[in-house]
Design goal:
The complex is a heterodimer of chains A (532) and B (282). Residues 20-25 and 401-422 of chain A have low confidence and may be disordered. Chain A has 18 helices and 19 strands. Chain A starts with a helix and ends with a strand. Chain A has a six-stranded antiparallel barrel with strand order 14-15-16-17-18-19. A four-stranded antiparallel sheet of chain A has the order 8-11-9-10, covered by helices on one side. In chain A, β15 (468-473) and β16 (476-491) form a beta hairpin. With 532 residues, chain A is an alpha+beta fold. The longest helix of chain B has 19 residues, at 24-42. In chain B, α5 runs parallel beside α6 (163-176). Chain B is of the alpha/beta class. Chain B has helices spanning 24-42, 57-63, 84-95, 114-119, 135-147, 163-176, 217-221, and strands at residues 2-5, 51-52, 67-68, 71-76, 103-106, 127-130, 154-156, 179-184, 195-198, 209-212, 234-243, 252-257, 262-267. In chain B, α6 (163-176) links the parallel β7 and β8 (179-184). In chain B, the strands form two sheets. In chain B, strands 1, 4, 5, 6, 7, 8, 9, 10, 11, 12 and 13 form an eleven-stranded mixed sheet that branches. In chain B, strands 2-3 form a two-stranded antiparallel sheet. Classes of the chains: A alpha+beta (532), B alpha/beta (282). Chains A and B meet through α16, β12, α17, β14 and β16 of A and α1, α3, α4, β6 and α5 of B.
Chain lengths: 532, 282
């Protein structure tokens, strides 16, 4: 598709010229437009692609825009949208799967397909390339196509051949290539220029040279491309397979009954689980869509703690989520889509399997149910954070994180602050430092309850820097019978104002233990936690 | 007197946290032992173990052989700041030590501080926090977790709203054989707990809770203000175990040594209600 960029942009060009005109429906309409697609190049703007009409006037890619305008003043100039071209090429690769299941995009403007064995379906390879060219032309894209024994030969014939489509007979593609220029071998421009400088203008000239001398003169790539073209080096079409979509839907007569919706959910989930099982997959995230006749659809998502295709589990989650559906207006359909899936990996049984019987609910299902009812942020696991400031010494993560680690999985290793000290030293310097550095001081006992915000309290102390002897909290006065401390924390200067605190663990005359601190910046006393 | 060193916190709480001790072989051995016990229990004539030793002999004696499984355990403290939640997590940690099931903590207030649990020896990797602010949601979550056989012990910081909710929690625990620990500040009227542990918040001078911090502890015992203590204190927590349908047991003194991260338990003889003390002098 040598004019893919300009063919795709021709619709924009036509709209730019005639605001109410439709985009060109065929190749001839697109070819009639002199179109220049530009890209910035330093401080200048150069032509990235030129349509055939502009090329006929002498405009070439890489030409400065001002020069191109002087040659072709009527040309329409548009910025080149390279991402759109890439997206379109991927879509065309999917479209071309009607000719072969193995199709790959070859940016910026080519498609590669392995049509081995497909000719029987089309009554010959010639029909494949002809239908491909015609099909692309109906989409407004001019294309050339070729079928040969090797990818290199097909690429050369399609890019440099004289015909719009051709088929090289099996085993006889080399004679068709000898007259083509060396650039058809997918060589870079520098190699092509070096070949041209020594008078090698065709592939036939190249084949007459001793192969042993080519790498030292023109690089290894030339030999590789020649070998690929001749079939002496392996090359195959690497077609990324689109992930299969697992979904099930059911339409029913408009109903305001929740029982109908639940019954439909049972059938739809059963069908989805069948498809997941057949595809060897498990769902990690579900999307529920309830459709109405008289209003827009209602949808929601359900995140799963671990991949699942258990029908009972998925139905339970779906039914719970559907309880939130507004049925004052009759629903008419339900779709359940596994929007995120992963490969199904059955658990390895152990010799001494002490797990509960199979009818027991998996822990992941319990976490899913809790998160669905209470919200994902309500079912969490704490992780230690290497920070001296107490309120920053931990963080909450979902009970199941993105890597699928569960609360009942074995720990991956020491987390947080201990990770640095528990592992073996990696270098001799680290081992030396660890031997000679004094061990960090262990933090004092922390309270089991930490207030979200330290609470300002009134405190009486005998000396300004000393521990409190009494304080007021909760509308009553507490007499301190013991105080341990201070534990000084100074940290957080890189986050803004310094955090400088002297912490005291105090016990009151009623036997309660509190965690107080004196703010060294302002001198105020705060209650921060309770030894609950 | 028994002494059980607490495991080091797996997650660590700061740069100075002690290294993690890999106890996996011990865990696997304990699991194998539990499998054998359950297998024996299934055999004709076998008896299913219904109690789990906490490792604190005096407390186990007061509990009648250990923590009852498939039941609720209430820890009631009339005041906050009396280590009731710490005791609940310690019991849950003991119950979960023999397998790899996670501990669930239901925290309606959202003020639970995980590093303190790590200092207590609870692995943060095996602690799932459920933050349900409403009491009905917290009760629902506790019931769901208790019913799940693959979940570990549950520690809930609330009391059941009514007798009906308490009964539901008790039935859920019975159905799965799990341990539920309810930590709250008032004894519920409709409690269905098999065991209640009272943590009285009495004056330190009376001996309910006192701190012995090196040479500074004498002032606390006299009920006088103590200016300061340099080192970590040792907390003496006197609790009383009340088993359902029985007389209150002998008080148990729990000694929390923050310095060595260890807990000791002592029986306090001669302190049974109604029992007269006698002294002999010569």
């Amino acid at each position: 598709m040598p004019f893919l960029a300009t063919d795709l942009a021709s619709g924009d060009a036509r709209r730019a010229r005639e605001s109410n005109a439709r985009p060109p429906a065929d190749v001839r309409a697109a070819a009639a437009i002199a179109l220049l697609l530009t890209r910035p190049c330093g401080s200048a703007v150069v032509v990235a692609h030129a349509s055939p009409a502009a090329r006929a006037r002498g405009v070439r890619a890489g030409m400065v825009l001002g020069e191109a305008r002087a040659i072709c003043p009527e040309a329409i100039v548009l910025p080149h949208d390279a991402p759109r071209d890439a997206r379109t090429l991927e879509h065309l690769a999917v479209w071309a799967q009607r000719f072969s299941p193995i199709v790959a995009s070859e940016p910026p403007d080519a498609l590669l397909a392995d049509v081995s064995g497909c000719e029987r379906l089309f009554r010959g390879e010639a029909n494949i390339v002809r239908q491909a060219v015609v099909g692309l032309a109906t989409q407004g894209i001019r294309a050339r196509a070729a079928v040969a024994d090797t990818i290199g030969a097909a690429w050369a014939l399609s890019h440099a051949g004289s015909e719009a489509y051709c088929v090289a007979p099996p085993g006889r593609h080399v004679p068709m290539l000898v007259g083509l220029p060396p650039a058809a071998l997918r060589l870079d421009s520098a190699t092509v220029e070096r070949l041209d400088a020594v008078g090698i203008r065709t592939i036939g000239d190249l084949l007459m040279l001793p192969v042993a001398t080519l790498p030292s003169r023109f690089g290894d790539e030339l030999v590789l491309r020649l070998s690929q073209m001749l079939g002496r080096a392996a090359e195959w079409v690497e077609a990324p397979r689109a992930a299969p979509v697992f979904a099930a839907r059911m339409a029913f007569g408009p109903s305001e009954s929740r029982d109908v919706l639940t019954a439909a959910a049972g059938r739809v989930v059963a069908k989805l689980c069948e498809r997941l099982t057949a595809g060897g997959a498990a769902a990690r995230r579900l999307r529920l869509v309830v459709s109405y006749e008289q209003r827009s659809a209602w949808e929601t998502w359900i995140g799963l703690s671990r991949p699942s295709r258990d029908e009972r589990h998925l139905f339970g989650l779906t039914a719970s989520a559907l309880e939130r559906v507004d049925l004052t207006i009759a629903a008419a359909g339900l779709m359940v889509l596994a929007s995120e899936t992963s490969r199904w990996r059955p658990a390895q049984p152990e010799l001494f399997d002490d797990r509960p019987p199979d009818d027991a609910e998996p822990l992941g299902a319990l976490l899913d149910r809790l998160a669905l009812r209470l919200g994902g942020g309500a079912v969490v696991r704490a992780e230690a954070v290497d920070d001296h400031q107490p309120e920053r010494a931990y963080r909450y993560v979902p009970a199941v994180d993105a890597s699928g680690r569960r609360a009942d999985d074995p720990p991956a290793g020491a987390a947080g602050a201990n990770a640095k000290t528990d592992r073996q030293p990696r270098t001799a310097k680290e081992a030396f430092d660890r031997r000679h550095d004094p061990p960090p001081a262990a933090p004092g006992a922390r309270p089991m309850v930490l207030l979200a915000r330290p609470r300002l309290i009134r405190v009486l102390a005998l000396v300004p820097d000393g521990p409190p002897i009494r304080f007021e909290y909760g509308g009553q006065e507490h007499l301190v019978v013991h105080a341990a401390g201070p534990e000084r924390l100074e940290t957080g200067w890189w986050r803004g104002p310094d955090v400088r605190r002297d912490y005291f663990r105090v016990q009151t005359h009623e036997g309660q233990q509190y965690w107080l601190f004196r703010d060294l910046n302002g001198g105020d006393w705060y209650l921060h936690g309770l030894y609950e | 007197m028994s002494s059980v060193p607490l495991a080091r916190p797996a997650g660590g709480v700061g740069p100075g946290s002690p290294p993690v001790i890999d106890a996996r072989p011990a865990v696997r051995l304990a699991r194998a032992r539990r499998v054998l016990e359950e297998f024996t229990a299934r055999c004709p004539g076998g008896s299913r173990p219904r109690r789990l030793a906490t490792g604190l002999d005096a407390l186990d004696d007061a509990l009648g052989g250990g923590l009852p499984l498939g039941a609720l355990c209430e820890i009631v403290s009339p005041r906050c700041g009396c280590r009731a939640l710490s005791l609940g997590l310690w019991l849950a940690r003991s119950a979960a030590a023999s397998d790899d099931r996670p501990i669930f903590l239901i925290d309606p207030s959202g003020e639970f501080y995980p590093p303190a649990a790590a200092q207590l020896g609870v692995s943060l990797d095996r602690l799932v926090c459920v933050r349900a602010p409403r009491i009905d949601e917290a009760t629902w979550a506790a019931e769901q977790i208790l019913r799940c056989r693959r979940a570990g012990p549950v520690v809930a910081r609330f009391s059941a709203a009514d007798a009906r909710a308490a009964r539901r929690l008790q039935l859920a625990a019975e159905a799965s054989g799990a341990l539920g620990v309810l930590v709250h500040h008032r004894a519920g009227a409709g409690s269905f707990a098999a065991v209640r542990i009272d943590v009285p918040g009495q004056a330190a001078s009376s001996g309910a809770i006192r701190v012995a911090a090196g040479s500074r502890g004498d002032g606390a015992r006299r009920g006088l203000p103590v200016a300061s203590g340099d080192g970590p204190a040792t907390l003496l927590l006197r609790v009383r175990v009340v088993r359902r349908g029985r007389e209150p047991g002998v008080p148990v003194l729990l000694e929390w040594a923050d310095a060595s991260l260890s807990v000791h338990s002592h029986a306090v003889p001669g302190d049974r209600p109604g029992e007269r003390r006698r002294a002999a002098g010569a």
